[in-house]
Each structure stands twice: as C-alpha cells, then as structure tokens.
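INPUT
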Amino acid sequence: MIDRRKFLTTVALGTASAAFLSACGQSSSSGQTGSADNPVTITYTWWGNDDRAERTRKAIALFESKNPDIKVNGNFSDFAGYWQKRATEAAGGGLPDVMQWDLSYLRDYGQRNQLLDLGTVKINTDAFEKSLLPSGQIRGKTYGIPTSTNAFAVYYDPAKLASLGIAEPDGSWNYKEFNAFLAEVGAKGNGTLFGGTDYTGIWWNFNIWLRQNNIQAFTEDGKLGFSKDDLKKWWNLTADLRGTGAIVGEDKATQLLPKSPFGSNVTATEVTWDNFMAGYLADSGAKELKLVPVPSDDPDNLGLFLKPSMLMVASAKTKYKDAAARFIDFMVNDPEVGQIFKTSRGVPASKTQRDGTTFEGTDKLVVDYEKSIEKYLKDAPEPPIVGFGTLESTFKRVTQDLNYGKLTVDGAADAWFKEAEDLIKQNA
Amino acid sequence: MTQSPTLSRRSASAPTPPRKSRRRGADARAGYTFLLPWLLGFIALTVGPMISSLYLSFTNYNLFDAPKWIGFDNYVTLFQDERFLQSVGVTMNYVIFGTPLKLAAALAIAMLLNSKRKGQGFYRSAFYAPSLIGASVSIAIVWKAMFGDSGPVDQGLSFFGINLGGWVGNPNMTMGMMILLTVWQFGAPMVIFLAGLKQIPADLYEAASMDGAGPVRKFLNITWPMLSPVIFFNLLMETIHAFQIFASAYIISNGEGGPAGSTLFYTLYLYLRGFSDFRMGYASAMAWLLVIVVGIITLIFFKTSKSWVHYSGDAK
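OUTPUT
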C-alpha cells in the first residue's frame, strides 16, 4: 500500500513550460566559396505540395550540374507550418541560406535584419519589370527578388456549369451579378454543388475591392487606410448568400482541408490567385478550368495588380553569400527553370525566363489571363505592414465565424479591428 | 507523463528510516552524484528556460528585437482578450468532462481485467495499446477521418436514425470528439488502477461476502477506500495532463483551433500567439498563468484529499 508521507512529499508539479530559448548566431562578413572538388553546401527551403517539391528537386539537380562547386540541401513544408518554423529558426539564428518567401512576411523579417540585402550581391534583375521590383524592397534595400507574378481571378469549371445548364461567365460583372451567378449555381446544384466559397473571407480580395473604391489598405506610416464601415460593407456583400447553396458551408469546407472546396469538386467557382491553376487541376481532376476577372462595380477599375507570387530571399547570416546569390539568380532567371515550373509558381517575372518557357494548355490560360487584364493593372502593392500574416489569417478566421453564425458582421469588424490595432500598437 | 514513473518508483521502494546520521551524509552524497546528470539537464533545459520565460512574460518580445519591459501589461491584456477567454472556456470544459470520464473508463476496465480469467495478459495489452499510439499524430488523423461527413461514426449513427453529419466541421460536436479521443486513451491510468487493485487483500472481499455484501457494497466500502490513494494520484495526473492537451487539437484543427474556435485549447492558443504572431512575451505570460492555475488546482486537490483519501497506517 501507499503511505501518506512518501506520497505527499512527492509533489506533482504540472508545467506548461514552453521553452522560449533565444540564442545569438555569428555572421561572417565574407562569403565562403567552394570548388568542384570541395563544394559548399547551402540550404534551401520552400512551402508547397508534392508537385512543387518534385519540380523544385528537378531545378536543384539542374543547378548542381551547372554549378559543381555548390550543393543545395532542399527542405519543404506546408504554408502554415512554414512560418512557425522560420520564426523558431530566426530566434535561434539558424535560418536556411536561401528561402522561398511571401510578401506578407517580408517586413517582419526584412525590417528586423534577418534577411540579406540582395543589393550587395550579384543578382541580375535586368529582365524584370521595373514596377515589380519595389515589392521586394523596404526602405531602399532589396530583401526579395520576385520569382513570378500572380493576379486575382475567378476560376470556374466549364464542365460543371454545362451540366447545370448555366452559361459561362465572361467576367464583366458587378458584385450583384456575381452574387446572382453564385446563387443560381447553388439553386441548381441542389446541395451537391455549391456556388463558391465566401469570397469576402480573403484579405487580398478585400484589398482589391478597396482599390476599386480608391481606398488604400495601408497608409505610408503603417496604419490602416480604411474604416470599420468599409469592412462592414465588404462583409455585408455576401450577407444574403451565407447559409444558402451559393456558398459552401464552413462545416463542409473545414473537413476538406487541406484541400479547397473547389479542388474537391464541391464548388463551381473560386476567387483566388491565378497560379493555383496547376494545384486545382491536380486536386480536382477536372479536364479544364477557366479564368475570368473579379467582379467590380466600376467597370473601368477592377482594382487588379500583379503581385509577386513568391520571392527568393537569403538569410542575413548566411556564410555563403556568393553561392546563395548564384542560386537565387538561377531560380529567377534561368529559362530551363521556367520550363520546369511553368506557371505553378505564377507567371515567371523575369523576361528571360518567361520567353524561354513554352506555355501550353492550362499554363497558357494563366499567361493569357494576365495578358488580358494588362490594361486594368495598377502598381504592385508595397510590402504590407509588420505582422500582416497575423491580420491575414485573422481575416479568414473571423469570416469563418461569420459563416458559422458565431459572429455578426458588426462583431466581426470589431474583432478584426481590435486585433489589427493591437498589432500596430505592438509593433510601433 | 514523465512524473508518474518517478512517483511510483519512489513510493514503491519506501526505504527504511535512516538510523545513523553519518551513514546518511554519505548516502546523500552518493545520491546526488547519481542524480547529477539528470539534475544538470533539469537546470539547463527546464529551470533555465522557465526563468527566462518568466522574465519574458513581463516584456514585449517578438523573437527578433530585444525584449522590451512592459510590467504586467501582458497579464492585464490577457483578460481583455476574447480569444484567450474562449480558450480558457474550451480547456475547462475538456478538463471537467474529459478527465472524470477517462478515469471512470480506466477504473471500469481495470476492474474487469482484475479477475482471474484465461488470456488476461492479452486483454491487458490490447486495452493498453490505444494509449501507446494515442498521443501520436496518426491517431488524430484517423480520428478526423472517422468523424468526418459520411465517416464511420456518421454512418453508424445514421443507421440508428441519428443524423448529426460530420463532427469535425461542427463547432458543437468537436468537443465531444476530443473528449472521446482522450477517454479512449485510458491505458495509463488503467494500468495504475490495476496495480492498485492487486494490492487490496482478497480476504477483505471474502469477509464481506460472508457478511452478505453485494458487488456495489463491496465497491463502495472496500474497493473505493482502499484504492483512494491511487484514484487521487490518477485524478491529479490526468487533470494536469488534460490542461496540457495540444497535439491532437493541433492536428484535428489544422493548427487553427477551429471550427469557430471550438478546439482552441489553452496551449494551442499559447502556441499560436508565440509562433504565429511572434508575441513571445504574451505567450510566456499565458504559460505562467497556466502554471499558477494548475498549481492552485493541485493544492486544492491535496487539501480536499484529506477527507476522502485513505492511506495505510492512518487511524480511521
């Protein structure tokens, strides 16, 4: 039997000890170089699915065969986990040498001196649109080189629309017409096919709507450029559609993760970036998917822009600056890399790479789409404010709560603004 | 839990009371020498980070810049943070309903397995198996598939005319799903219960039978009081364990605590604040608040234990 004294002297202490360690790394000023006999090894990490992993591995193999003095160690994860890993590595001073990067996180790391100023190394940017490069620059320093561009679009599956007897849209629509279209799909889809997902849940779509109404999302000094009323107006756009067949319910969408409802053949349309084409085709098994512009109440201002779909960055602490720069240069400029990725990273940003790539089939659709909206395109957005990644995910989460009926539009706007103001104050 | 083996070993090998103080000093030296490797690890890997996280909890720290001292701001902000309050609610729900259910299941199975029957060894292993794999990622994924739309659970219930749809996407059902997952992992407390049951002298039951006591009577008057230290130990451990739920919630909700915040457990929110939002000071404050709350609850358990936990040698 257990006796009291022995038992009680052993006090059980439950701890939620989160080990928050911080350490400092050392940086060396001169980049080390290797030779064919004694190559240097750089690490490279990216986010994406198996398809991208396969393509990236091919590109790395090609790079290594052309640069025998450099070896590249590749590693990848999904998008959400990707940033948690980078945060931990940055705290420990061990970011990979070269990384695929997203615009949303460029300020977080760039302004905090975690990324290498690529202006100090040799990367050829002659073949880039001059309007695109600033999106990788902060306060005159270049932290990221865009690999490719993407633009917002409405995807639809022509076969699904045909089976319901609905005419294909031409993309000249306002929000009312777009809503009516979604509702029609929902009504005819009869519970098995929904119109789309709630398009008000995506930050970038809201950003486009703001541009259509000539409102800036963020001010120069890193504050919000729009009001709570603007946000309420936005979330009210689909108020009548929520809970109907026009929008797939959040309970369904949640279960399909990590696939999207569109990729799972549950919806007929999706509003998102045009470089998701390859992923959607692979997920859904659809024969063909088409792209049309997003709705706008002002037919002359679609609010569209080309965004760097991803950037290449290097760690500020890399020991192999030269090797990192050569790898980045290769990934963004080499025509053969373009042939490997096609449009799965977006449309190649470098003209050298774009011209060296043959686009066929669906890849051509994406390139053609970006050409077709050329006259509506405005300047690429500045890198968003520090902590933007949080705001973006909060935006999505709050819209999900709206769809679950856990929040009203007013409550949702309050919740998001509180988070945003809190964050801006934190980083001030 | 790492504490349980330590505890049981110490209580099992109850040493003879020390007689000579000289012997005692030498013993202590040898003891500490043997403890040293563990002690060093404990100080470097547990105490050190805990102290630094205590400091960080009073700062605004984003991982990149030097921590900025802000006093109790983090702790004050916590109580105005609706998601924090939601995470407290979710976790309390889980602890209050999940822990007793799990212990009841563990005790019931332990009592079934305590009888002398052929193949008991097999059954014991079989019932323990879920706990070996239960905390793993794969089970959380299987769970997610089982409770999805048209998953086995949905179909099984539909067969009986209960149409709930998928549980995974329904904010009102996810807690039930999480609790079922923890109840299913009753193995660890079950093994401890089983060991406790074996310690109860059989002659007590024989005497009770002679006096005409039924099974309920025997349970209430013999099993429960004789087992009470073990029950207390399991209750304490499982409660603490429940507060720390993370992995399964992380997998089932894709690390977001959804749907609609219904699986936003305390540690998950802590993690999101720290590693998604880079608010390490805030996350540290949450961690320390949890340590304090769990400490208080443990203390309350110990205080109330006097009235219902019976140890051998206690005057009754």
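end of record. The first strand of chain A starts at residue 40 and ends at 47.
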